[in-house]
Specification:
The complex is a heterodimer of chains A (295) and B (445). With 295 residues, chain A is mostly helical. Chain A contains twelve helices and two strands. Chain A starts with a helix and ends with a helix. Chain B has helices at residues 2-15, 131-178, 184-192, 298-305, 418-425, 427-444, and strands at 26-36, 41-46, 52-56, 61-73, 78-89, 93-98, 106-109, 111-118, 126-130, 205-207, 213-218, 223-230, 242-247, 251-261, 269-271, 277-280, 286-297, 316-323, 328-332, 339-341, 344-350, 358-362, 376-381, 390-395, 407-411. The chains are: A mainly alpha (295), B alpha+beta (445).
């Protein structure tokens, strides 16, 4: 009884510390230029995706051959991943593609910056210093996660608002799959953030954490791209078993699964994405408990 | 002269390497497959290099194992069979068992089969006949075809006799008129001369029965199966083992649309995703044809069509199955009552003179288009010059909307407010400048 009460008190203190530190880190991020520049890049990418789509419309619908850029893009994607993927991406309107084009730069920057910053602070002994106070390593990791989650939410809200304006002024609609895709991207960004924090905790310094994180994300993307590659056989190369294992911990796998699911399948894949983020945070808690916060 | 020939020979010898090389043919046991793909039968070959055969689950497909010459054709990147040189059907029993687990072994015997499509509600209504029934079906078709040919022969003879009689009467009328005599009796006879009627074509089959062939009729539940041929002496035939993947469609009964733009009627596009948005620029009217569609795995479907095919095992796609019979199209515009459109036949008329172009006009079967077959049967969506979007859906013969048939049609003619949106994209950058300015002013203090 006494132990349970103590645990509750520790958890409450941890959450409170995490919120306070997270708020401070959020403010620091907003004072820098990186966040705003990456958000601008995201909105520009979204805008050009919509303009490209509108410029490629003809009397029977989307015809990528009408604009050279869309033609090259469609041919490249068709060659690598087949016509079915291109149809899925383009034919229901520009907003699914615009969402991905926008989310990639801003969420990518956010994850990279978070990993690097955590590593720098750890190297400088800032985290260790904090831990001497009322904060522990888990609370600090949670704070970083909360900051990332808040910034990802803000970025996606800005992208949603921007695409909403694009749709309204262009006589278009966001489409029935857009909001499911938005939720899937948001949850994927949480998993990616959780991976970033875990890499920061495991690695010795900022550069190694960044390298580990970038390598891991590259593996996830390569495995995903491999699964989408058109082939003449159901089993893709000898790495199929490894790919099968990797996909369980890959945020992009659950994102892709959510995008092509519907009904219970969609809800299930979103829930599993959330579970992955929670499991990664749990792993971070265990690792930081064993290793400490010293670089 | 000798020098000339020597020089020519020296020049021509290196050219020998430029001549085409025949691909090496190897004798092997290949599976000849006629697979049902959901709407049609497609023939493909599974040589030893393609050890998996893809079949749709729960439907009849046909398999025969043949000794033939197989070669790789690099131009189309396909395995081909030289059945003209060697084509020997192997006798025996096809044993099929579940792959990787124990289960009852299915043993299939060679049967004579034929497949054909009869006319009905749909474009294709496939039937399969085996054994004596197959032979009877083919005899029935032959009898029908022979009766039609005989009727056509009779018609040709009657037509020739009619033309001869017409010619004779016209000649006689001409003679009488030259002599200034009354020819009205002969003119009356000429107008009353009955023209023989062309016999109607047999309409029972939309695709006549195929030549009876011998093979195994394979109809498996969904799953992976191992198959091999067992010779009449009980031994397994070497090289006959194949894996069979029996796949099912993931969804059925969706509604897709064939979209035929009025300005490019030979280049139709498809709207396959149910309840999706259809964007057009509104520069021409659209002619739409609704059809039933099924959702299938891309790789499974492509491999069923052609064993050399490539696909994406992770993606599903919609494929056209049949047209929707006796359908109507409902158009809803904002602020207006729904309007039901019926299917009409259209004729494409080429522009007169040297200029290129055409126009699509409704078929007038009793007037100027008498005897002309329509080029197009579709529902007209009048979009040309319109800027308002609409919502369409397909109604069945009872007037009930078909699930998944709804489409939002949006007309987008460029983005006139694109510069405004481009400016909005720079708002975060402006916010950054403001934040930094405030910060630097605060530090300066």
């Amino acid at each position: 009884m006494m132990k349970a009460a103590m645990n509750r008190s520790v958890t409450r203190r941890r959450v409170r510390s995490a919120v306070v530190i997270g708020r401070r880190q959020l403010k620091e991020t907003l004072l820098g230029a990186g966040w705003w520049v990456s958000l601008t890049a995201a909105l520009l990418a979204a805008h050009f995706a919509v303009v490209l789509f509108a410029g490629s419309l003809d009397s029977s619908g989307f015809n990528p051959e009408r604009t050279p850029v869309a033609g090259v893009l469609a041919r490249t994607l068709t060659g690598a991943f087949g016509a079915t993927l291109v149809e899925t991406l383009f034919t229901a309107g520009p907003f699914l593609l615009a969402l991905f084009a926008a989310a990639l730069p801003v969420l990518g920057w956010l994850a990279m910056a978070s990993v690097f910053r955590f590593g720098i602070e750890k190297n400088a002994g800032a985290v260790e210093l904090l831990v001497y106070g009322p904060v522990d390593g888990t609370a600090y990791c949670l704070a970083a996660f909360l900051r990332d989650a808040a910034l990802a939410t803000a970025a996606l809200a800005a992208i949603l608002a921007f695409l909403g304006i694009e749709a309204l002024t262009g006589g278009m609609i966001l489409g029935p799959r857009f909001f499911a895709a938005l939720a899937a991207v948001w949850l994927a960004s949480l998993s990616v953030a959780a991976w970033g924090i875990l890499c920061s905790v495991i690695a010795g310094g900022a550069s190694s954490a960044l390298a580990m994180f970038a390598g891991l994300m590259a593996v996830f993307l390569v495995v995903l791209a491999g699964s989408f590659t058109i082939s003449s056989a159901p089993v893709r190369a000898a790495s199929a078993t490894m790919a099968w294992v990797v996909r369980w911990v890959s945020p992009v796998h659950w994102l892709a699964l959510a995008l092509r699911s519907r009904g219970f399948g969609l809800v299930g894949s979103l829930a599993l994405q959330g579970a992955l983020a929670a499991a990664l945070l749990g792993a971070t808690h265990l690792v930081i408990g064993r290793r400490g916060v010293r670089a | 002269m000798k020098r000339f020939f020597a020089a020519a020979l020296c020049l021509m010898v290196p050219l020998a390497i430029c001549f085409a090389d025949l691909p090496a043919r190897t004798e092997e046991l290949a599976w000849s497959v006629i697979a049902f793909n959901g709407w049609d039968y497609s023939a493909t070959l599974a040589p030893a290099a393609g050890p998996t055969v893809w079949l749709m689950a729960g439907v009849d497909s046909f398999v025969s194992l043949r000794k033939t010459l197989v070669y790789w054709w690099p131009l189309t990147a396909q395995w081909m069979a030289d059945t003209g040189t060697l084509n020997v059907l192997l006798e025996g029993t096809l044993e099929i068992r579940p792959a990787g687990k124990s289960g009852p072994v299915r043993r299939l015997e060679l049967v004579t089969y034929t497949y054909f499509s009869v006319r009905g509600d749909y474009e294709l209504n496939w039937r399969v006949a085996t054994g004596d029934e197959a032979v009877r079906e083919l005899e029935r078709y032959r009898a029908m075809a022979e009766a039609y040919l005989a009727a056509m022969e009779r018609y040709e003879q009657e037509l020739q006799a009619w033309e001869r009689e017409q010619g004779r009467l016209k000649e006689r009328i001409g003679e009488l008129q030259e002599q200034g005599r009354d020819a009205s009796a002969l003119v009356g006879e000429l107008t009353r001369l009955p023209q023989p009627a062309e016999p109607p074509q047999p309409r029972e089959y939309s695709m006549p029965p195929s030549q009876p062939q011998r093979g195994f009729v394979v109809n498996l539940p969904e799953g992976t199966w191992d198959a091999r041929l067992v010779a009449p002496d009980g031994s397994a035939v070497e090289g006959s083992a194949r894996r069979i993947v029996a796949w099912s469609k993931s969804r059925a009964g969706g509604i897709g649309y064939e979209l035929i733009p009025g300005d490019r009627w030979t280049r139709p596009q498809q709207s396959t995703t149910p309840s999706s948005v259809l964007y057009v620029d509104g520069s021409a009217d659209l002619y739409v044809q609704p059809y039933f569609e099924d959702e299938v795995n891309d790789l499974c479907y492509e491999k069923t069509l052609d064993n050399n095919g490539r696909g994406n095992g992770e993606l599903a796609k919609w494929v056209r199955i049949q047209q929707v019979p006796r359908a109507r199209l409902e158009i809803r515009r904002s602020g207006a009552a729904p309007e039901a459109v019926t299917e009409r036949s259209y004729v494409v008329e080429q522009a007169e003179g040297a200029s290129l172009g055409y126009s699509i006009v409704p078929l007038d079967p009793e007037g100027i288009h008498r005897g002309i077959e329509p080029n197009l049967k579709a529902f007209l969506l009048p979009l040309k010059g319109s800027s308002a979007g609409m919502r369409i859906r397909t109604l069945d013969e009872n007037g009930s909307p078909l699930a998944g048939s709804s489409r939002e049609v949006r007309i987008v003619r460029g983005l006139p407010l694109a510069p405004l949106c481009l400016g909005l994209a720079f708002v975060p950058l402006a916010a950054m400048v403001v934040v930094m300015a405030i910060r630097s002013r605060r530090y300066r203090r």
